Amino acid sequence: MNKKTVKDMELKGKKVLVRCDFNVPMDEKQNITDNTRIVAAMPTIKYLIENDCAIILCSHLGRPKGEVKPEYSLTPVAKELEKLLGKKVIMARDVIGEETKAKAKTLQNGEIMLLENVRFHKEETDNNEEFAKALASMAEIYVNDAFGSSHRAHASTAGVAKFLPAVSRFFN
Rounded CA gap, 126 and 129, in Å? Predict the structure, then answer.
């Protein structure tokens, strides 16, 4: 069975939600100690930039069990992405709140926004349909770049694929 990849989609000018695997190890001061998983997402992100997309990245980090815990914030990941890409990454303070939705709505082609840790919401691991629908509402296409998390039926992996055209990551 052939699966569609991001290369099979008409992307120009589209808003794209990308589920990444940014579950990276950090020390006690929230310094990333191994950025391998962030680097692994670069081909997909760069391909979307080249295709003039507005990019919304999402991921989990650790197991905060549906609670906001600062030590599991994706802010250090946003900083690492900026370093690797050489461009600004807008860090959303939440996942599906009004402020985040407003930022997503005004996101321009070529811009990148990283949502806060999806596991700050118990609805993520419950694969809550309303949560998945709210995530999907910010984009036109869904790309799964998080194969390490694909086996989980969570809202940001399986759930959003019910509401958006869904494809897998960039492959050479």
Answer: 9
Contact of 84 with 137, CB cutoff 8 Å: no
Contact (CB, 8 A) for 72 and 32: no
Per-residue pLDDT of 47-99, as tens digits, reads 999 999 999 999 999 999 999 999 999 999 999 999 999 999 999 999 999 99
Residue 133 · residue 161 · CB < 8 Å: no
pTM for this prediction: 0.94
Output phi, psi for 79, to 5 deg: -65, -40
Question: Which residues are bridge partners to 114 per DSSP?
Answer: 57, 91
Please report the DSSP string for 33-89 in residue order. Answer: S--HHHHHTHHHHHHHHHTT-EEEEE---S--TTS--GGG-SHHHHHHHHHHHTS--
Amino acid at residue number 68: V
